[in-house]
Design brief:
heterodimer, A: mainly alpha, 7 helices, 0% strand, B: 262 residues, five-stranded mixed beta sheet
């Protein structure tokens, strides 16, 4: 029963990722560097989701490897994204250390788990770290940007999207191994929830990038 | 309820709690930040209000000092010169004509300085009469003609506003007289429904806008600086434009709040 929903939701997710990536590419020159980095993430996301679908549909190949690769790419790109946002040189070392550590762990899991479900624990750890960064961004905003209307900043919308997506996905990644082993039939339900969260997040990312492009145009006009 | 459905329920509840927490964080950030922005705006407004009060006090003290000097010049020095003239008149000496002329010229200068410092017409007859008189006086001093026009239906002004607007017009006209090498200057008051537009136009050399801006922001031109301060007190806006074919247009838009009388 859940499979139909899963299909619809996965196509919706793919389509929404494409739209976000497209708007980012279209307004590339107007975007600030952190938004360009985020656009790269959405391009990678679309390519990975798209190739997973193609592999599964036409070659019958399990796309777990692509998912794990995407997990690592997402972690690295989002680390870069948050490093650019915080603009604090002293964060360079911790970002590098944690980033390399998590990447090595991801690669290790990838190799030793052979692309199987227990790599989800790495995804859960990555998600927790990114969730922490997302919450820290809001704390950073409250401490530093008291004079700006936060709703008019592209970063607010992107970070909101990330916070909603990551907090909704954390439990899924934590329990994925159990669900796959014990509740095989119901896994589609969990993935559907994950996909819909992704679609909501993509809507927020789209608005954030569009806002960034609009502000970039105004800045260019002022110059 | 089976164990499986319990787990599903637990998962859904857990995810819902996580999402609720995320939404709570977002809402907290939005509302807290909004509050911070409002407080910041309030603080800035208070600061602006305080600066305005300080500026008003400084200008008031400047005006009071001008009034005092003007009165002293008119009443004391003027009176002494008049007495001197009367006593010279009664002297049978032949040198008295030259001295009389000197005393007359000094008396005229004192009267002019006294009037410039604080025109008595401003207190007695109001802004428009005194501005017209100022234009006539400026015309008679040099070879430049200074004309005065007024258009539209007048709005009520209080004494402080009249004094500030008079000083702005005086500064703009004097600046044009001193620096523009113009042959004609016009001072125009135009009333709209809720504002007064003061325009001073000359047919002189024109100006370099960047230079003027530099002077205003760099606080080098004291006259311009004072004019800007007075305009700020009235919540107005000052613009400079080049006049066609030559000269400068100084335009001041002053929004006026109409106080309804009950």
């Amino acid at each position: 029963m859940y499979l139909k929903f899963l299909d619809v939701s996965s196509y919706l997710l793919l389509f929404s990722s494409l739209i976000v990536a497209a708007i980012g590419i279209f307004y590339w020159n107007r975007l600030e560097k952190f938004l360009q980095v985020f656009t790269v993430l959405k391009i990678v996301s679309f390519l990975c989701d798209g190739s997973s679908k193609v592999l599964l549909a036409f070659a019958g190949v399990n796309p777990n490897h692509i998912s794990i690769f995407y997990g690592i790419a997402q972690l690295l790109i989002l680390f870069w994204f948050y490093y650019l946002i915080f603009e604090k040189p002293f964060l360079k070392k911790p970002f590098l250390i944690v980033g390399i550590g998590l990447t090595l762990m991801g690669i290790g899991n990838w190799i030793f788990s052979e692309g199987q479900s227990n790599a989800m624990y790495t995804a859960a750890i990555d998600t927790s770290v990114l969730l922490g960064l997302s919450v820290y961004y809001f704390y950073h905003v409250l401490k530093t940007e008291g004079e700006i209307n936060i709703l008019s900043t592209p970063l607010f919308w992107i970070n909101t999207g990330l916070l909603i997506y990551l907090s909704g996905s954390l439990l899924l990644f934590l329990s994925a191994d159990y669900i796959i082993r014990v509740l095989q039939d119901d896994f589609a339900l969990f993935l559907t929830v994950h996909n819909f969260l992704g679609v909501i997040a993509n809507g927020l990312f789209f608005y954030g990038i569009w806002l960034g492009a609009k502000q970039g145009r105004l800045n260019t006009a002022k110059q | 309820m089976t164990g499986d459905s319990q787990i599903i329920l637990l998962f859904i509840a857990g995810t819902a709690v996580m999402l609720l927490m995320a939404v709570a964080i977002i809402l907290f950030v939005v509302f807290h930040q909004k509050k911070m922005v409002q407080e910041e705006i309030k603080r800035q407004n208070m600061e602006i209000e305080y600066q305005k009060k300080m500026l008003k006090a400084a200008l008031e003290s400047q005006e009071n000092e001008r009034k005092r000097v003007s009165k002293d010049l008119h009443d004391d020095v003027g009176m002494m010169l008049m007495t001197m003239r009367v006593s010279l008149n009664s002297q049978p000496n032949g040198n008295s004509d030259e001295l009389m002329q000197l005393v007359d010229e000094t008396h005229e200068s004192v009267r002019r300085i006294s009037w410039d410092l604080m025109p008595s017409t401003l207190d007695n007859f109001g802004l428009f009469q005194s501005t017209q008189e100022m234009c006539e006086r400026l015309s008679s001093r040099d070879t430049i003609t200074v004309s005065y026009t007024e258009d539209g239906k007048r709005l009520p002004l209080d004494k402080d506003q009249e004094l500030l607007i008079y000083r702005i017009a005086q500064e703009a006209a004097t600046n044009a007289l001193k620096h523009s090498h113009a042959s004609h200057i016009s001072v125009d008051f135009q009333w709209t429904k809720n504002s007064l537009i003061l325009t001073v136009v000359d047919d002189g050399l024109g100006f370099d806008l960047a230079n003027i801006k530099n002077k205003v922001s760099g606080r080098h031109g004291l006259g311009l600086y004072n004019m800007e301060n007075r305009i700020a007190l009235l919540g107005g806006e000052l613009t400079f434009k080049n006049n066609e074919p030559s000269g400068t247009v100084v335009s001041v838009v002053l929004p006026l709040v109409i106080h309804e009388s009950h």
